């Protein structure tokens, strides 16, 4: 997570574009963004069909 914190330092926003298979990692990204002082985090849910049961299945 240290590398994420360093990468996020000095940025105002982070836009996550993870696919459904990577959503488990998004919590780590959010934590790193908070630690780095990022003001805005846009989650990747905008790219998933949240109405689809397949989108919520564990892979």
Brief account:
Helices cover 37% and strands 10% of the residues. It is built from 3 helices and 2 strands. It has helices at 2-8, 26-36, 53-56; strands at residues 13-15, 40-42.
SSE layout and pairing:
Blueprint (H helix, E strand, L loop, with lengths): L1 H7 L4 E3 L10 H11 L3 E3 L10 H4 L3
Parallel strand pairs: 1-2
Helix pairs in contact: 1-2
Organism: Glarea lozoyensis (strain ATCC 74030 / MF5533)
InterPro entries: NAD(P)-bd_dom_sf (IPR036291), NmrA-like (IPR008030), NmrA/Isoflavone_reductase-like (IPR051609)
GO molecular function, one term: oxidoreductase activity
Strand order of the largest sheet: 1-2
The main sheet comes to:
2 strands, parallel
Low-confidence stretches: none
Tell me the domain tally: 1
Radius of gyration over all CA atoms, rounded: 13 Å
| Mean pLDDT over the residues | 85
- Please estimate the helix content: 25-40%
Give the topology string: H per helix, E per strand: HEHEH
- Total helices: the number is 3
Number of strands: 2
Based on helices, strands and strand pairing, what is the structural class?
alpha+beta
Cα-to-Cα separation, first versus last residue:
23 Å
Instruction: Estimate the strand proportion.
Output: 5-15%
> What global shape is seen?
elongated
Protein name: Putative Isoflavone reductase like protein IRL
InterPro entries: NAD(P)-bd_dom_sf, NmrA-like, NmrA/Isoflavone_reductase-like
Keywords: NADP, Oxidoreductase
Organism: Glarea lozoyensis (strain ATCC 74030 / MF5533)
Give an overview in words.
It is built from 3 helices and 2 strands. It is α+β, with helices and mostly antiparallel strands and 59 residues long. It is elongated and about 35 Å long. The chain starts with a helix and ends with a helix. This is Putative Isoflavone reductase like protein IRL. InterPro entries: NAD(P)-bd_dom_sf, NmrA-like, NmrA/Isoflavone_reductase-like. It comes from Glarea lozoyensis (strain ATCC 74030 / MF5533). It holds the Pfam family NmrA.
């Amino acid at each position: 997570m240290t590398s994420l914190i360093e990468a996020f330092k000095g940025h105002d926003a982070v836009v996550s574009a993870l696919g459904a298979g990577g959503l488990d990692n998004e919590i780590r990204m959010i934590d790193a963004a908070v630690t780095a002082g990022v003001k805005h985090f846009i989650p990747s849910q905008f790219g998933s069909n949240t109405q689809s049961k397949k989108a919520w299945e564990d892979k």
